[in-house]
Write a structure and sequence with these properties.
Elements: H1 3-34, H2 93-96, H3 100-104
Length: about 160
């Protein structure tokens, strides 16, 4: 490949980068004109958002959150950061398994979690139900990122 060909490719690459910069600048200006705002606010890409404030999660008096649809798995009314769930250990069971739930004052895991796929009763949690966070999630009183018109099952008539 000759020097002229290399120079032509380098020039084409430089023009492409310059063109992309103009296009992206144009997109930002277009967003400003239509009033679109980033979820990051007015911070630049290099800036770091301050961490959100820590708040204690409020739970209903009975300790249970309402469900959004029939047969929704119950929501977790407490923080679970740092909880260990591996193939050999499930920290949730230290409070929610039988008979530990009595001492902890926590709800016992549903009897459905003590059956295998064929319906046979087990003495321990079924392997198919062992990873709690596959179905159960912590509830947080967080402002929605985007507006929506969702209504839970009890609100729809």
């Amino acid at each position: 490949m000759g020097n002229a060909t290399r120079l032509a490719r380098l020039l084409a690459l430089a023009m492409g980068v310059l063109g992309a910069g103009i296009v992206f600048t144009g997109i930002g200006e277009a967003q400003d004109r239509v009033g679109l705002k980033s979820l990051r606010g007015d911070l630049g890409l290099e800036d770091t958002n301050p961490p959100p404030g820590l708040t204690r999660q409020e739970t209903p008096a009975d300790g249970m959150f309402s469900r959004a649809y029939r047969q929704q798995p119950p929501l977790i009314p407490h923080r679970i950061e740092g909880y260990q769930i591996s193939k050999d250990y499930n920290q949730c069971m230290t409070c929610h398994d039988w008979p530990a739930h009595l001492k902890a004052g926590a709800p016992k895991v549903s009897e459905t979690h003590y059956s295998d796929r064929e319906g046979n009763r087990l003495d321990k949690i079924s392997g198919t139900r062992f990873f709690c966070t596959a179905c159960h999630v912590p509830q947080a009183d967080a402002k929605p990122l985007v507006t929506n018109t969702f209504q839970n099952a009890t609100e729809v008539k």
